Records
---
Amino acid sequence: MKQISLSYGSGGKLTYEFITQYILKYFSNPLLEELLDSAVIKKDLFSTDRIAFTIDGYTINPIFFAGGDIGKLSICGTINDLVAVGAEPKLIACSLIIQEGLEFEVIEKVLSSIRNVCETENVKIVTGDTKVVERTACDKIFITTSGIGIIKDNVKLGYDRIKPEDKIIVTGNIAEHGFAILLSRGSYGFEYDIKSDCASLYPLMKKIFDSEYAVELKFLRDATRGGIAAVLNEIVKQNKNVGIELIEENIPVSDEVKSISDILGIDPLYVANEGKMVIITSDSSAEKIVEILTSHPLGKNSKIIGKVTDTYKGKVVMKTLYGAYRIIDMPTAEQLPRIC
Amino acid sequence: MKQISLSYGSGGKLTYEFITQYILKYFSNPLLEELLDSAVIKKDLFSTDRIAFTIDGYTINPIFFAGGDIGKLSICGTINDLVAVGAEPKLIACSLIIQEGLEFEVIEKVLSSIRNVCETENVKIVTGDTKVVERTACDKIFITTSGIGIIKDNVKLGYDRIKPEDKIIVTGNIAEHGFAILLSRGSYGFEYDIKSDCASLYPLMKKIFDSEYAVELKFLRDATRGGIAAVLNEIVKQNKNVGIELIEENIPVSDEVKSISDILGIDPLYVANEGKMVIITSDSSAEKIVEILTSHPLGKNSKIIGKVTDTYKGKVVMKTLYGAYRIIDMPTAEQLPRIC
C-alpha cells in the first residue's frame, strides 16, 4: 500500500504532487486553486458587520470511530465554534501534520470525509498546509482547522448578557462522543451501540438565527471537552454575578449512555460532545426555541435543562432526581486524553 | 521543573488555568480575553476590499535554534504568507499541540517569543486552542498559526501577471535558515557561524507597498521549504507561458553558506529560508525596488537574480559562473525533514 514519506513535506516535487493530485482532487475551488501563500478573499463576501475567526487542533485517537473520523470532526468542530458566536460558517483553512508511513488510503479516506462535510455544509477550504514528520514525532495525523464566518446582525451574544431567570437549553442527548471514543479504545466485556454525535450544528442553529427569537439568544457554546459541566462552569467564572441551577431529570441522556455511565462510574455531564450546543436564552423565548429545535432532526431531543440564578453566584448546582442539590464543579483531571 | 500533563488539555480546571495564567499572561487583548469559541471581529477593521487568509503548521526540530525558535518562526511564517499576497498582517489564531511532560519553562519561552514578535509586528493573537497529547504522540510542541491580513488596494499579484522581461529579485542572502537547522542537528567537525534568517518581512515589504512601485509588483513568494528553486519552479508550473533565467553570480549567498554548501555538497538554491521574499516585478521598476529594499536592514543584500523569459517555457535555467546553462529542477527528495 502506498505510504507517505518525508519528501511529501519537502516543498519540492512530491509536495507539489500531493497538492495537485490529492488536495486539489478533493477540495477544488477557485480560491484554493490559486495556490498562493494566502487565500485572497473579496470583502464583499462578508455581508454583515462582524466576522468570526477561530482555530482548533484535532488529535483524536482513534482517527476513525463510530459516527465519524478526524476529518469530519475537524470541519464540524470548526463550524460549531463559528456557530457558537452566531456566525454562518464560510471559509476553512486546513493544516495537516502527517506521520511518515501513513497509508495514502487512510489519508484519502480522511480527505474525502472532509470534502463530504464541506459540500453538505457549504463551506470552502481556501488555503492549507501539509507537513510530514518522522514516525516517532506524531501519531498518524493531526488536523488543525481555522474558520471564518459571518455573524448575523440580529445575534448579539456575550457573557455579560446572561441574567438571572434566563433558561439553559441543550440541543440533545449528551455524552455520546466521549463514550463512543472511550469504548472504541478498549474491550469492556459488554455490548453497546453508541455513536459519536459529531455533526455540524449550523443547519439546526440557522433555524433559530433566522427566527424572531434570534434577538433573545444570550450565549451559545459548543459542549466539547469537559462536557456541559465545563461549559457551564466557564460561564459562571466569566460572569460572576450569576449562578446556574440544573434539573437532573431534564438533562437528555440516552438509555444506552445512562447504563454505560452507571457501569463505568463516569458522570455524563463531564463527557465530551461534538454536536451539542448549550444555549442561554431569555425565559420568555426558551420554550419557543425548544419547539424550533425539536422540529429539526439534529435537535429532536433538545431540552430546557436549567436556569440562570442570582443565588449560588459563580457556581453550578444541580437538583438531583432525589431532590437534593449537588455542586457541579469544573472537571479537574483528564478523563480521556485525545478526545477531539 | 513543572511539566505539562494531559489534564491541561482536558477542557476542565487545568485548561482554564492554562488559558488564564499562561495564554492570557502573554497575549492579553480585548478580543482574546472574551474567551469565546471564535474571535468576533468588526468588519471595519478591514479597510480595504480584499482580505488575506492563511494557515501553516510548524513542526521544526530543534524547537530552539540559532536565530530563532518555533514560536518566532510560527508568527513570522504566517506574517510572511500574508505579506506574499500583498497584505498587512493583522490577526493571528494560534493552535498548540504539546507533548505531555514538556516543561512549563520551555512552553513559556515559546509563548514569550510569540509575544515579542506579535508586539514588534503589531499583530494580535485573537483566538487559539491547546491540546496535550501523550509522550509517544508528538515531539515537544507543534504550532499551527492562521492569519488574516488586509490586502493593499494598489497591489495586484498573480501568476498570470508574470510576463517575459520581468525581473526576479530576492531580498537577501539565501539558505541561512536551512543550514542553521541542519548544522544544529549534528556535529560536523568544523566551525561555523550561521543563524536562521527567520524574520517578519512586513517592515521591508511595506516600503514597497507604500511606494509608487507597488503597482509594478507582479508576484511575491516567501522562499521557505525547497528554497528559491522550489518557488521558481512552482511559478513556471503555474504560468506555463514563461521560463525563468537566473544569473548565478547575482544570487546573494554569504561566504559562510558558500563554504558550508561546498563542504556538504548541498546546493543553496534548494535550501530553506525563513526571511527572504522572491519578488517578480516589471523590468522598469526592478532597480528602483532594489534601491528601496537595500535601504532597509532586512533587505540590505537584495539583488536582481534573473528574469522571466519567453524561451525555456515551463523551466528554470541558470547561467552558471562559467557561462554554461544548467536546468534548476523542482527539488525531488527531502533534504531535511522538519525544517519549519
Note: Chain B is about 30% helix and 25% strand.
---
Amino acid sequence: MPSYTPPTKEMQFLLHDVLNASAQDIEGYDELDRDFTNAVLEEAGKVAAEVLQPLNVIGDTVGCTLENGVVRTPPGFKDAFDTMREGGWTALDCNPDYGGQGLPFLVSSAVTEMFSSANMAFSMYPGLTHGAYSAINAHGTDEQKEKYLPKMVACDWTGTMNLTEPHCGTDLGLMRTKAVPQSDGSFKVSGQKIFISAGDHDMSENVIHLVLAKIPGGPEGIKGVSLFIVPKFLVNDDGSLGARNGVSVGKIEEKMGIHGNCTCVMNYDEATGYLIGGEHKGMRAMFTMMNEARIGVGMQGYAQAEVAYQNALEYAKDRLQGRDVTGTKNPDGPADPLIVHPDIRRNLLDQKSFVEAARAFAFWGANLIDRSHRNGDQDADGLVSLMTPVIKGFLTDKGFELTTAAQQIYGGHGYIEEWGMSQFARDARIAMIYEGANGVQALDLVGRKLAQDGGKHVMAFFELVKTWCKENDSDEMKPFVEPLKKASKDLQAAGMYFMQSGMKNPNNALAGSYDFMHLFGHVCLGLMWNWMAKASLEALATGASDTEFYETKLATARFYMARQLPMTGTHLARIESGAEPVMELAAASF
Amino acid sequence: MPSYTPPTKEMQFLLHDVLNASAQDIEGYDELDRDFTNAVLEEAGKVAAEVLQPLNVIGDTVGCTLENGVVRTPPGFKDAFDTMREGGWTALDCNPDYGGQGLPFLVSSAVTEMFSSANMAFSMYPGLTHGAYSAINAHGTDEQKEKYLPKMVACDWTGTMNLTEPHCGTDLGLMRTKAVPQSDGSFKVSGQKIFISAGDHDMSENVIHLVLAKIPGGPEGIKGVSLFIVPKFLVNDDGSLGARNGVSVGKIEEKMGIHGNCTCVMNYDEATGYLIGGEHKGMRAMFTMMNEARIGVGMQGYAQAEVAYQNALEYAKDRLQGRDVTGTKNPDGPADPLIVHPDIRRNLLDQKSFVEAARAFAFWGANLIDRSHRNGDQDADGLVSLMTPVIKGFLTDKGFELTTAAQQIYGGHGYIEEWGMSQFARDARIAMIYEGANGVQALDLVGRKLAQDGGKHVMAFFELVKTWCKENDSDEMKPFVEPLKKASKDLQAAGMYFMQSGMKNPNNALAGSYDFMHLFGHVCLGLMWNWMAKASLEALATGASDTEFYETKLATARFYMARQLPMTGTHLARIESGAEPVMELAAASF
C-alpha cells in the first residue's frame, strides 16, 4: 500500500527561508510566523495522512455509484468529509463575514497541495465548492451571499461548476443550455452539462450548481453567456431547504482515474436558477477565480508527482536488485538497493528536482494572488495572470510525466494496481485536461497574456530575472545564475521571434505556443532553484544546524541546472522553425 | 467507439519503396514482391480490423476472471483465437518442419503490428506462444521439438515465459524456484512466478510454460539458472494429453491495462519439467529470442500510438471548436474543425512523424534479423543487437508519450473510457516496463552493446550514417541530410564522452545511458526519414501517380527534422554533465 508523508519541512523552507512571508507587506502576512504556519501545516498534514490518504485506494477501486438517481460516494468518504468540515479545513482562506478564517491564499494553497497528494479525487469536493464560493463571493448580490456562502464555506452545501456540454468544451460560445426569464426575476434553466465534477453526492445537504447558460435573444456566441446559481434543493428565505429543483444526474462517467470523484452528466429541466454577475456577463464572472482555480490544478499535477516520488524513493531504497558497478554497497545482502544505480538516481532526481521547484513556483503564484487581492497590486495581478497558464500547463504536463517516471521505478509492480502507482498516474492525467486543456493554456499564454497591457508583464518578468542575475553574481551563486541566464536568453529570443514573425503571420507564434509554455516553465523553475539555492547558502553561512537539508537543496539545484534546464535550447529551436512545418500539410493529407 | 484502419499502404511503401525487399539477397526475400505482400497484409488487416479490434474494448472492460482455478478470457476471445489459428496467422514465420509458413520475420512483424494495434492484449497470447516456440525451436532436442512445436505453431497449445519472481525481476540471479533432478531425467519444479502473461486461459488445450529455475548445487547467481519446459498437461508419447501437472494459477493481477490478457501468479509445486538448452544455460536459451521479442515490444509501443493517432485525427477533423485565427475555414458551420489550430496540428504531426519513422525503424530491425538468421550475416546480427534496446526503449517511451498526446486531442472525452483513448494509453504503458524495463534497455545499450566486439557495431552504424550523408549531398536531399549530420555529430560526441570519461568512472557513462538511448533513437528516426524522403523524391521523379502520398511523406519528414531532431542537443548536454549531478547525493539525503 502506498503511503504519504506531508512535506511540512519543505513548505516551511519555502514560506520562510525563500519567500520570507511574514516580512512581506501583504495584509494578513504579518501573522505568518514560523510557529503559526507550522501549526497549520502539521495539523493539515495529519488530516491528509491519517484521514484522506487511507481512503485513496478505496476511492479508486469502489468509485461512485448511481442508485435510483442518487450518487453514493465510496465507503468512508462521508465521515472524512465531516472531519474536514469540523476542523474548518474547507474555510481557511474564505471570507470571515461568512464563517471563513480569512487566511492568505498562500497558506490555504499549501494545505490544498497536501490534501491533493493524499487523495486527489476527494479533495475535489471541497475544491469545487471553493470555486463556486469564490464566484458568488465576487459577483453575488448581498442577498445571494448571505443565503449561500455560510453553508458553502462550512461545506454543509457543496458547489459545482457547469461549463461543458456534449458538443462544446473550450468553445463555450456554442453552448445550447437556455435560461428563460420568469416574472419573479428568476430563470428556468434547461439543457445538458457534462463532465461535472462532484456533480452530486451523499456528503452534503445541498449542492449549489453554478451553470453557464444563454438567455434567449441575447448576443451570439460567447458574449451571450450568463451565469446562474441553480441549487439542487431550493433554499427558502429562512435558509431552510425547500423543494427539489429540476436538476438530475443523467449518469456517472467511467473514467481513467479520480474514481472517487463523481463526474456527472447533469440534466437541467426547467430548473430554477438565479442570475449572478449580470446578464451576458457569465464568462467574466467565471474567469474571476480562474487564476486561483488554475493554480490549484497546477498543484494537483505536482502533488501527484510528490506522493509518487515519496513511494518510488522508498521502493528504490528497499528493493534489492543488481550490484553497484563501482563496488558493492550492501555486501551482507543478496544484492544492492536500486538507488545505487545511476539511472535510477537520474530518474529520482528528475522527480525531486521538479517537485520541489514546482511547489516553489505554485507558492510564488499564490503569493502574487494575495498581493493582488489583498493589496490591490496591479503589477502582481499582471504577473500572476501571465504565469497562470504556465503553472497550470507546465506543472501538470511535467507532473504526469514524472508520476509515470515514479511508476517506472517499480518495474512490473508499477503496472499492477496493488502498489498504487498506477492510480497516481491515472489520477494525474486529468490535470492536463480539465480547467482548460494544456493546449488552451499555451494559446492563452502566447495569444493573450504575452501582449497583455502592451507586453508589460512579460517585460517585468524578464527584468526580474535580469535583476536577480545581476545582483547574485557571486562565485557561489554562479553555478545557478549562469544556466538561468542562458535559459532566460532562450526565452527572450523566443519572445522576440513571436513579436517579429507573429506580426507577419500569427501562426508563427501559435505553432510554437506549446514549446513556449514549456520553455517559460523551465525558466521559472530555474529561477525557483536560484531562490532556493540562495536561501540555502544563506542558511549555511549563518550557521543553520540542519546542514544536510540545505546541502541537499544545493545538490538538487545543481542537478536541475545540469539535466533539466538545457531543454530550453530544444524548445527555442522548435519555436524558431515557425509555422511552416506545422501548417503546410492540407488537413486531408494527414 | 474507436476504430482501426490497417496501414497497409504505409507498410507497402516501406517494404518496397524504402527497403526494396524483394531485391535483397536474403533467403526467401525473392518471393516478397508487391502483390504477394499486399495479399498478406490485406488479409491480415481484415482479421485485425474485423475480428480483433471489435473485441478490444470488451477485453478491457470485462477482463479475465479466475473461477475455481480456471481462467476465463473475455467474451469473443476464444472464437477470435480460432479464427487466427484457422487462418494460419500464428504460424507465419515459423519453421515449416513443424507446420509453419517459413515467411521472413519482416513480413510477420508487419502483421504483428496490425494485430497489436487492433487488440494488444489479445495479440499477446500468440505473441508469447511464438516466444516459447522460438526457444524450443532453437534449443530443444529433436524429440522435444516434435512433441511440442507442431501444436504450438498451430496455437492448439499456447506458451508462456516464466522469469519474474516476487523478489526479483531484472536481477534473475536471485531467483528461488528450484528444479530437482529425477531418476528418469525429468525435474520437479517448485516455486512461484509472477507477472506471467497469458499464464492460463480457456482458448487452448494445453499451455506450455517455459520456466527458469535453479538446479540445487549449481553455480551461484545467474550462472546457475536453467530453463525448463513445464506443460500444464503432461504430454504422452503418442502426443495425447496426460495428467494435469503440478502448476496452478495463484491469482490474476489487477493491472492498469491490457485487461484482456491474464497476468497470472503461477505456483509450481513439484511440477514435472524437462530441461532445455543444457544445465545452467537457461539465460542463454532465454536470450536467443530476445532481439525478436524486444523488437516485438517496440512495435507494441508505436502500434498503440498508430491506432490512437488514427482516432485523434478523425476527431480533430470532426470536432468543431473555435475559429482559425487567419480566417474561417468552415463558414457554414458554427465553428472550424480542431485541425485548423496550429497547436492541434503540432500535436498530430508529433504523432504522425513518430509513428511512421518508428515503423520504418522496426521494419529495418526485422530485416536485419532476417539477414542474420537466414544468411548468417554476423554484421547484421551485431547491428541489430546494438539497436534492439533502442527499438524497445525509445519506441515504447515515445509510443506511450504520443498515445497520451492523442488522448489529449479529445479534451475531457479523452479521459472518459467511452471513447477508447484511455485504454490505448493504459495498454501502451506496459510496453515501457516488460521485456526488460526501459532503464535496463539503456543499461544494456551503454554498458554492453556499445563496446561489443570492440565497438565494431556502433562504428558500423556511424559509418552507415556518414556514407548516407555523403552519397545524398543533393540540393533536394540537403534539408534532410543536414539535420541528420548535426544529430549524428551529437551522438558521436556522446559516444566519445562515454569512452573518455567512462574509463575514469563508469558512472559517467551510466548516468547518461537513458539520454543516450533517446539520442540514438532520434538519430535512427532521422535516418529513417532520410530514407523515406529519398524514396519519395525518387517516386515523384519517376512519375508516380500518387503524388499526394509522397508529398505528404516529404512534409512529414521536414516536420521531424524541424521539431523532433533538435532534441539531440539537449540529450548531449545532459550526458556531458556526467555522473556528478546524479551521484553526489547520499541515498539517505534524497
Note: The mean pLDDT of chain A is 97.
